[in-house]
Structures are given as structure tokens and as C-alpha cells.
Design a protein that fits this description.
The complex is a heterodimer of chains A (about 475) and B (about 400). Chain A is built from 12 helices and 22 strands. By secondary structure, chain A is an alpha+beta fold. In chain A, helix 1 runs parallel beside helix 5, helix 2 packs across helix 8 and helix 10 packs across helix 11. Chain B contains 6 helices and 29 strands. Chain B is α/β, with parallel strands linked by helices and about 400 residues long. In chain B, strands 1, 2, 5, 6, 7, 8 and 21 form a 7-stranded mixed sheet that branches. Chain B has a 5-stranded parallel sheet with strand order 10-17-11-12-13. The chains are: A alpha+beta (about 475), B alpha/beta (about 400). The interface between A and B is large, with 56 and 49 residues. The structure holds flavin-adenine dinucleotide (FAD) (2 copies). The site of one flavin-adenine dinucleotide has 35 residues of chain B, from helix 1, strand 3, strand 6, helix 4 and helix 6.
Chain lengths: ~475, ~400
């Protein structure tokens, strides 16, 4: 069967991989220049423990399950998960009541090892917390990932198992004939399809409309963030949440995989036509600061590296919308994947294939015997013991040539990223962490551009920062 | 591998240090992470270097060549393309195409220079398109890669690099629509305001800042507003510039991450705190150049590099260095270097005032000196004779308005 997955976010990528496991002929279509550049690129990156979601929702059913699946998945696909654990802190007895409710919910949702710590225990584990806190809900299974790593890894594994990836290609229409999906039409051409998976994130409602399938309306809810330098990592060991409100989990402090500390997100509802509004605002950033000071009064804002914003794909139902279409055979919606979408993604992929496709649609799944679940990531040599790194340098001196000084990324890693499909500066950055460190590409922009231009055989002026016409340098000074 | 003095960084400071250490007859190794030595000088192809040190006006690369030539006259192990990964006690781990190596040394001169404050640190609201660069990156595009950054540019920050880039961009045919500075006075040297802006009719917008950047793919426009005394934008004063390039020149930050976990930093400069002989709080660690304090003139960088190199060599030879007494910043002193005084050598004070002062009296120990027309952008450099410093176990530098 020909399966077309629309959207190479974390959800579409993992579904595509799952489809190759059962021998589908898979095409992944993505409008951006690289994998994971939609919602998957800008969020908190937390693998939630799963106590937040109201029992009975799909979110609750898939979150803790997804969390547990990360263990095996990260080994198969060679990406990092750090089980930092998380705290939800309470400042008074009213908030304590909410923590108790969260524990109850967590137990219903199957979250292991939750417990409430008193002030002293909490402060001894996180000494930089506001000393005025009274309790903390401790969830040891919470962790952090770089979400795009997961999407990239899943697509690489899917393509190794036969899937085809089409970047810079935007779906503009879906042809339906006799109540069945026929073709996915893009701005570049068309793809025949027996099965269409709509994993288009913020644009999921628009894609469903193209097919005349049922959907939920999606509007963006903006979340703004501040990132602090990785020297701050000493101050924060775990993900720190305030006690949640009805509307959101509040402003968090998140220690990332590489030690930078993420502060945010805000929660601002935007009209549906603003799905590309990723701008930060003065109000938003000030709000983040204000709230963070309450959680951790001494975080140094003068160590700010950068700011950014992400958009949550929200629907009025506030739940994932994962269903086969009853109107259009072969069309499957996997949309409105708001938080905890990253966490749930591995479970969503399994659910889509085993529940929606096999059970609900009645398609018999046959295991692809040659499916290989293993993918190897790009080795970051600086993480290796010196002797091992030395052996690699002996065979390839480019593995000793450091291009990004802050994050110690070598030329060989940059070349490897290009081999795997990076075509832009951001493509290199997200795959290798070059240009993402303390100096924010002050020293390595031109160094990376040289390698990129050389490897691709193009002039520097043809190099883009990200998607679209985001050129970096103009023509030559002297011809 | 073993050496006596290990110099980290091959800019004007590091080269000076290596030369002076070699003169003391010890084994010297200099590590540079770029393909060649010279540091920031390599990309500064304008004139204005060396008047004090070489008594001649040179370009950056010419100044670097001169130092390299002297460096070549000594038996110094210069290793380029070699990045220091960690410094642990007197052992340093380096990475290069030759492998990961450990070097043991008796002393270190830390001369890693400064980096530019990045755009993200300013927390300016708006989009994140391409076309936003720090001045040093633009300088590299033009002077080293032979590429223009865009067609129409606005410059944020009136630091010297920004001013020099305003002129350079104009000369290369890029339209520079203005320089925006949030302070009520310029951040760069007066001579650069004259030669880089006024001579080219480039407007300077003081007490103003960028409040928004717009553009989905490439930068399209930048919104500038006036700021009040607390640097908050004043609503209603916004002005929009249609530009494809925003060049940031918001200052340099000393690079200290390799040592900041174990050595004392100079709170006034953000650099490694050192004494007048370059010694840090850790006795075998010496520092010089922009990694200790950001200098206006390269000549002083080399001079202080030489001092640090010499004393690092004496330390390596086992000579006992004198106790150092602290020097604290007082009234109106924003930046102060050095932070300790050792009577092993003379004292030169490098300082910046916290606000413009027309007439002032600088006081340290028993020394007083009247100064006029002080600007925060211009470093005050003063030699203080030793006799005025006798009998103190603690010193303070203050600059009193008169
Ligand atoms: C601020 C914020 C914080 C969050 N924090 C967390 C968290 O800590 N933990 C957690 O578990 N979850 C979190 N989430 C949720 C999580 O990020 C999302 O659930 C998840 O990334 C959704 O992935 P996706 O693949 O559905 O969407 P996307 O990543 O947006 O993927 C959809 C893809 O489809 C492409 N596309 C769209 N239209 C077309 C078209 N016409 N043609 C071709 N391609 C198209 C897009 O370019 C995009 O790449 C957070 C979300 C936000 C915004
Ligand atoms: C744009 C600009 C214009 C200027 N104009 C003038 C002028 O007109 N006249 C004047 O007199 N002065 C001028 N200056 C000032 C002067 O040039 C500098 O202060 C001086 O060159 C700094 O020298 P440095 O050695 O401290 O630092 P740098 O030149 O920055 O050298 C530091 C070196 O250390 C290396 N390094 C860093 N980290 C490591 C590591 N971990 N391992 C190995 N190596 C490392 C770097 O690659 C670099 O080569 C200007 C400066 C700038 C930036």
C-alpha cells in the first residue's frame, strides 16, 4: 500500500517509521527545508511523567505510555533522553491539595514513583528554588529531549527502511475519488496514495479540509521562551513547574540536554490565521522573567543566550484528534497534537498503526521481515573518551578539526550532517549543535559556511539560514 | 608533552606574552585555535594600530605580521588549529587534527581575547530572519570571505567595530541608513564618530534602541524607538527602517569560560582578574589582553601581554613573586584593571568611567591626577609611580567630579 505522511514533525516521522515496519510504501512530505521545523522545533522538550492529563482523554492514555517507550526508542534510534525528573512546587496548603490531585491522576494514568516532598527535602535536591516553597511533587520519570533529534532519527530510520522524504514540498490539495483518497498534490507534483496520514501540526485542519474530511479547528497558542547559557546548568537539576492552573502548566525552568536552561513558555491564544507568527514580544518575555523569579529567584538573566517562540496546535476539544475519516476512506487525522505531544508521540505512532489502521480501518498488517529498527546518530566526538576520539582522528583528521569552538563540533560532524540532508545553517545547527553555543555563531558562522559551500559545491551566497529565501550573504565585494 | 610556559591564544596579547617568556630563556608553547595567529587583528584591515608600540600607523594584519616576525625569531612552539578543551591544574587538553593531547606546564598565560555580545542576549522582540549579524561577523564576510552581507543596513550600537563597519559598508556600496545607540552618548572613540559617520553623513540616533525586528525569511524591517532614562522605549517615538541587514555592535565580552570555574573574575570587566604583572588568583595562571579587560588600543594589549609572559616565565623558573594587594573600584569607576598590585613591577591603571565627566580627579593611594573630558567609551590609561603606593595594604581607584 502507498502511504503518504504529510508533515515531518515528531508525530509524522514516528508514524512513517512505524509504517515501514509493516511494509508500506511510504512518502513523507514536508514543506520546510528540514525535518522537525514546525511545532517540534520550538517547545519545552520535556518527556512528561504523565500526571497532568485528565483521565479519559487520549492525552492521558498516551502520555505515560509514550514516556515509557522512550527508553527503548532512544536506544534503537540513538538519540539522547535525560531522565532529569521533575518538581511541581507548591507555596501553600491550597496548592498542596492540587499536588495531591495530580498524584491521584498520575496513579490512574499509570505514572510510577510519584511522591510529595517537604520543603527541606525539595531544597536539598534543588538548592536554588525559592526558599518560600512548602512542598514539591517529585516525578522521577520526567526527562528532556531535543525533539527534532527524535524526528530526524525517525525519518532517517524510515528512509533506511525504504521510505522517501520530500523536503521543501508543500501539500496544496488532496484528490479524492469515489470516497477514497487518490493523490496528494503538492506545489512540486503529485504522490499517489492509498493511505494519507495527516500529521501537519498547526495546519492539520487545512489539510483535512483539502480532502473534505472531518476535522477540529486549530488555532495557535503562543509560548515564548528565554534560554540561559549552559554555565547556569549548575543551578537546575530537574524540570521545575509551578502548581498548574486550569489553563496551562505555567512558566517552567527546564535544564536542557546540553545544559542550557530554558525558561517559559507563556500561553497566548492567537487567531487561526496567525499560524506562522513566531515572534517574541516584550510583554511575553517580561512575563517569563517575572514568573521565573518566583520559582528560582537567583537565575542570572544576564546570561541570556537568546529568545524564541513556539505555537501549540490547540483545538476546542483540548485533546488529540486521532481518527480515521468516516467520509474519506484512507484518510487519517493525527492532528491537534498539543502538549504532551512529544511525550506521547511514540505511543501515538503505535496507536495510529495498530488501533486506527489495523483495527478501525481493517487493514491487515504484515510485518516487513527486513525492517531494521536500528539507526546510528552523528557521533559527537567531544563526548567520547580521549583515546577513542584519538583513534578516529588518526583515521580522519577532520574529526580533530573543530569548527564550532563553544560546542566543540568538528568538521567531520558537519560533513556528516550534510551527508544526511542538512542544506542550511539551521540544518547544521539542529543536527550538530554547531553555532548553538555561548558565542551564538560569532566565531563559526563563516567556518560552517565554508564547509557547507565546499561540500555542496555552491557559492556562499546560495547558502540559506533556514527555509525559504533566507539568504545569508549577498554577492562578492570585489569580483 | 611538557612545556614551561603555555600561552593560550595567539592574538596581540598571546604573541606578546610568548615573545617575552621566550626572552627569559624558558620553553614556550603557544596554542591558537584558528588557522593562523593574529586574532582579531586579522580581520581589522583599517589603519590605526601600533602608534605606541611600533611608533607607526599600521593596519591590523600589518601589526600582526610584525609580531609574527618577532615571534619567529625565538624558539617558540607555535601550534595553530589547536583548541584548548579544558584546563585542569597545570594540565591542558587540546584538540587538533593531530589528536587529543595533554600538555603539562609550569605556568599558563591565558590570552583568549573577547567575543561579541550576541543578538539573542539583547532580548529584542520580533521575528528571527536571516540578515542579523554581529559586526565582527560582517567584518569577516567582507574582509576575509569577500562577501557583502546585504544591500541596506542599520547598525545597532555605536561601539568601534560598528562605526568602522558603517564606513566600510558604505565604501563597498551598501546603504547604511543609520547607527542606533541607547546611551545618550556614542560608545566608540570620538575619532571613529568623525571618520566613520560624520564624513559619510550617516545619522547617529542617540538614546534610541531597536524595539522590533521583522521578516519571515530575510530581514525586512527594523523598528527603532527613543528610550527614557531607564532605557525603556517611549511609545509613540517609533520609526521604521526598511533594511535587509541589521549589524549589532553592542560590545565585547572577555572569554573566560575555560577558567571561570576556578579563577576569580574581574567583576568590572567580566574578564579574568589579574594583578599588574598579569597574575590571577591562581598563582600559576596569568592573563592578558581582551580576556582580562576589553582594550581600546592593541598597543596596550601587547605591552600587558609581554608583562604577563615575562612573569609567567619567572614563575616557571621558580622565582618567588611578591604578595599582591587588592585594588578596588571606587566612585565613578565602571571598569578597572588590574585588580591587584604587586611591587615586582610598575603599575599601569586601565579604567573607564561610568558616565561622561568634564573634569575629574583620579585618586589611588597617595596619587592624584586631574583629568578632563572623560567618556565611558574611552579607556583612561595611567602610569602610577610606585612611591605613591607605598605603605598601603589595599588600594582604591576613584574618579571624583570637580
Ligand atoms: C510552547 C510549547 C511547549 C510544548 N512543550 C511540550 C513538552 O514539554 N512536552 C511535550 O510532550 N509536548 C510539548 N509540546 C507539544 C509538542 O511540541 C507537540 O505536540 C508536537 O511537537 C507536535 O508535533 P507534530 O508532528 O504534530 O507537529 P509539527 O512538528 O508541527 O509537524 C507538522 C509538520 O507538518 C508540516 N506541514 C504543515 N503543513 C504542511 C503542508 N501543507 N505540506 C507539507 N507539510 C506541511 C509542518 O511544516 C511541520 O513540520 C509543546 C508545544 C509548544 C508549542
Ligand atoms: C573591530 C576592532 C577594531 C579595533 N581597532 C583598533 C585600532 O584601530 N587600533 C588599535 O590599537 N586597536 C584596535 N582594536 C583593539 C585591539 O585590536 C584588540 O584589543 C587586540 O587585538 C586584542 O588582542 P587579544 O590578543 O587580547 O585578543 P584576540 O585578538 O581576540 O586574540 C585571542 C586569540 O585567542 C584565540 N583563542 C581563544 N580561545 C582559544 C582556545 N580555547 N584555544 C586556543 N586559542 C584560543 C583566538 O582564536 C584568538 O586568536 C580593535 C579591535 C576590534 C575588535
Amino acid at each position: 500500500m502507498k502511504g503518504v505522511v504529510i508533515g515531518a514533525g515528531i508525530v509524522g516521522s514516528l508514524i512513517a517509521r512505524e509504517l515501514t515496519r509493516y511494509g508500506f510504501d511510504v512518502s513523507i512530505i514536508e514543506k520546510e527545508a528540514d525535518i522537525g521545523w514546525g511545532v517540534t522545533k520550538a517547545n519545552s522538550g520535556i518527556v512528561h511523567a504523565g500526571y497532568d492529563d485528565e483521565p479519559g482523554t487520549l492525552r492521558a492514555a498516551l502520555c505515560a505510555k509514550g514516556n515509557a517507550m522512550y527508553e527503548k526508542l532512544s536506544k534503537e534510534l540513538d538519540f539522547k533522553v535525560k531522565r532529569t525528573g521533575s518538581f511541581v512546587v507548591a507555596f501553600n496548603d491550597e496548592e498542596l491539595e492540587i499536588l495531591k490531585e495530580l498524584i491521584k491522576r498520575g496513579e490512574t494514568n499509570g505514572v510510577p514513583d510519584l511522591k510529595i516532598l517537604d520543603r527541606d527535602d525539595a531544597l536539598s535536591m534543588e538548592p536554588h528554588l525559592n526558599p518560600e516553597i512548602k512542598y514539591a511533587l517529585y516525578a522521577p520519570t520526567a526527562g528532556v529531549i531535543f525533539p527534532w533529534d527524535v524526528a530526524i532519527a525517525a525519518v532517517e530510520n524510515a528512509t533506511a527502511n525504504g521510505a522517501k522524504l520530500f523536503l521543501n514540498e508543500k501539500v496544496v490539495d488532496i484528490e479524492v475519488k469515489d470516497g477514497r483518497v487518490k493523490k496528494v498534490i503538492t506545489d512540486k507534483g503529485e504522490h499517489e496514495a492509498d493511505l494519507v496520514i495527516n500529521a501537519a501540526g498547526l495546519y492539520g485542519d487545512e489539510i483535512a479540509r483539502m480532502a473534505g474530511a472531518e476535522h477540529v479547528p486549530i488555532h495557535p497558542r503562543k509560548g515564548e521562551y528565554i534560554i540561559l547559557d549552559n554555565k547556569v546548568s549548575k543551578m537546575v537539576k530537574r524540570v521545575i513547574f509551578p502548581t498548574p492552573s486550569k489553563k496551562s502548566k505555567g512558566i517552567l525552568v527546564v535544564p536542557t540536554l546540553t545544559g542550557e536552561v530554558l525558561l517559559g513558555p507563556t500561553a497566548q491564544d492567537l487567531p487561526p490565521e496567525m499560524k506562522d507568527n513566531l515572534s517574541t514580544t516584550a510583554e511575553g518575555l517580561n512575563f517569563v522573567k517575572e514568573k521565573v523569579i518566583k520559582l528560582m529567584p537567583n537565575l542570572p538573566f544576564n546570561k541570556t543566550l537568546k529568545t524564541f517562540a513556539g505555537l501549540r496546535p490547540e483545538s476546542p476539544q483540548k485533546d488529540f484528534f486521532i481518527k480515521k475519516s468516516d467520509k474519506v476512506w484512507g484518510f487519517v487525522n493525527v492532528i491537534a497534537i498539543r502538549s504532551p505531544g512529544l511525550t506521547a508521540a511514540p505511543a501515538i505512532a503505535k496507536y495510529v498503526v495498530e488501533k486506527v489502521i489495523e483495527e478501525d480501518m481493517g487493514i491487515t498488517l504484515e510485518k516487513n521481515e527486513s525492517f531494521n529498527p536500528i539507526r546510528k546518530g552523528i557521533t559527537h566526538f567531544a563526548d567520547l573518551p580521549p583515546e577513542e576520539w584519538n583513534e578516529i582522528i588518526k583515521k580522519d583528521p577532520k574529526a580533530g578539526k573543530i569548527i564550532c569552538f563553544c560546542n566543540k563540533v568538528t568538521e567531520r560532524e558537519v560533513i556528516e550532517a550534510i551527508k544526511r540532508g542538512a542544506r542550511t545553517l539551521d540544518g547544521i545547527k539542529f543536527r550538530t549543535r554547531a553555532m548553538a553555543g555561548r558565542c551564538q555563531a560569532n566565531f563559526c558562522t563563516t567556518r560552517v559556511m565554508r564547509v557547507l559551500a565546499r561540500e555542496l559545491g555552491v557559492d556562499m551566497s546560495e547558502i540559506m539560514l533556514k527555509s525559504g529565501n533566507s539568504w545569508v550573504v549577498d554577492g562578492k565585494v570585489r569580483r | 608533552m611538557r612545556t614551561d610556559v603555555l600561552v593560550i591564544g595567539g592574538g596581540a596579547a598571546g604573541m606578546g606574552a610568548a615573545i617575552a617568556a621566550a626572552k627569559e630563556g624558558v620553553k614556550v608553547t603557544l596554542l591558537e585555535r584558528e588557522e593562523k595567529t593574529g586574532g582579531i587583528l586579522n580581520q581589522c584591515i583599517h589603519n590605526g594600530f601600533g602608534l605606541h608600540y611600533f611608533k607607526e600607523e599600521l593596519t591590523g594584519p600589518e601589526y600582526a605580521e610584525r609580531l609574527k616576525k618577532i615571534l619567529g625569531e625565538y624558539d617558540i612552539d607555535v601550534v595553530t588549529d589547536s583548541v584548548v578543551k579544558v584546563i585542569k591544574n597545570k594540565k591542558v587538553v587540546t584538540v587538533s587534527c593531530d589528536g587529543v593531547k595533554e600538555i603539562e606546564t609550569s605556568s599558563i598565560v591565558f590570552a583568549t581575547g573577547a567575543r561579541e555580545k550576541p543578538f539573542g542576549a539583547l532580548m529584542i522582540p520580533g521575528d528571527r530572519p536571516s540578515g542579523i549579524f554581529t559586526a565582527g561577523v560582517v567584518q569577516k564576510f567582507i574582509n576575509i570571505e569577500n562577501r557583502l552581507p546585504g544591500k541596506r543596513a542599520l547598525i545597532l550600537g555605536s561601539g568601534d567595530i560598528g562605526l568602522i563597519m558603517a564606513r566600510r559598508l558604505t565604501l563597498e556600496g551598501v546603504e547604511v541608513v543609520g547607527v542606533v545607540e541607547r546611551m545618550p552618548y556614542p560608545g566608540g572613540l570620538a575619532r571613529n564618530i568623525r571618520q566613520c559617520l560624520e564624513d559619510f553623513d550617516i545619522p547617529l540616533y542617540l538614546s534610541s534602541t531597536v524595539v522590533e525586528v521583522r521578516g519571515k525569511e530575510r530581514l525586512e524591517k527594523v523598528v527603532v524607538a527613543k528610550v527614557d532614562e531607564a532605557f525603556n522605549p517611549i511609545p509613540g517615538t517609533e520609526k521604521t527602517f526598511k533594511v535587509d541587514t541589521l549589524v549589532l555592535s553592542a560590545g565585547l565580552l572577555p572569554m573566560v569560560s575555560l577558567v571561570s570555574d576556578f579563577a576569580t573574575l574581574n567583576g568590572t570587566s567580566g574578564g579574568l582578574a589579574t594583578s599588574n604583572i598579569g597574575q590571577s588568583s591562581v598563582e600559576w595562571l596569568f592573563g592578558a589582553g581582551n580576556s582580562t579587560v576589553v582594550y581600546d588600543l592593541v598597543d596596550y594589549v601587547t605591552i600587558e601581554g609581554e608583562r604577563a609572559g615575562k612573569f609567567a616565565a619567572l614563575y616557571a623558573k621558580g622565582e618567588k613573586l611578591s604578595e599582591k594587594i587588592p585594588i578596588e573600584p571606587g566612585e565613578n569607576v565602571r571598569v578597572l584593571h588590574p585588580r591587584w598590585y604587586s611591587k615586582d613591577d610598575g603599575l599601569t591603571i586601565y579604567t573607564r568611567v561610568s558616565k561622561p565627566i568634564e573634569k575629574a580627579k583620579l585618586v589611588i593611594g597617595n596619587y592624584e591626577r586631574t583629568l578632563t573630558n572623560l567618556m565611558p567609551s574611552e579607556m583612561v590609561v595611567l602610569k602610577v609611580p610606585a612611591r605613591y603606593l607605598e605603605g598601603f595594604n589595599k588600594l582604591e581607584v576613584s574618579i571624583k567630579e570637580v
